[in-house]
Each structure stands twice: as C-alpha cells, then as structure tokens.
Amino acid sequence: MKIMIALLTLVIIFHFTVIIRLIPYEVVWAGKLKSVNEMYAFEAASIAINAFIIALLLLKAKHIKQNTSNKILDALLWLFVVLFAFNTVGNLMAETLFEKLFFTPLTLLSCILIWVIVRKDKKEKK
To answer: Which residues of 92-111 are buried (b: 16+ CB within 10 A; e: fewer)?
Structure first.
C-alpha cells in the first residue's frame, strides 16, 4: 500500500513538472497532444485521477475514517487494475521511447500492486 501511494505521489509530481514545462508535453500522452491547452486538460485529469486513487487506498487502509463500503472500494480498485492493464498496453504502443521505457513498467507495476492490495484484503477476510 505504501509503495503504491508513493508511486502515485511521484506520478502526480511528474504531471506537475509537465504542467510547468520542465518536461515537454510532447513526450507524454503517447505523443498525441496538439496544444498547451490540451496538455493542461489532460494533466489536470491525470492529477485528479491519481489523487482519487490515493484517496481510495487511504480509505481502504482505514487512514481516512469513512463509512465507505469495502465492496465499493474493491470495485473501484478493480476498475483501476483494469485501467492500468489497458494503459500498459497503450504505453507499449506510444510514439515516444520515453513513454515506452518509463511508463510501461510503471503502469504494469501499478496494476500488479493494486491487484495485490485487493486480493490481500480478500484473503485476510477468509
């Protein structure tokens, strides 16, 4: 859980570096962004999604006190397992070598870590 939260935090920091243009936006989003405005929209969405996943993980670990159903949390986390799996395939087909080499392993690792988190919780309940 801690590793996944750390990875997501680093990804958020990375997206902020794209927004402030320390990293050129041409190397992200499969090299398909056509304008700065499009980059802002995509980067903002990515930051929001990653923050949402962190919130889900904190809820799952009970670091945030909430009466959220574990079934709902698990369903949302399974959704992200699938999303990261598809994203891994997409990164393999990216036009930029940077994305292929850096983000393919990252999304694959994210897929596996969230899968382990969801599965571990189910095993502990049995």
So the answer is: eebebeebeebbbebbbebb
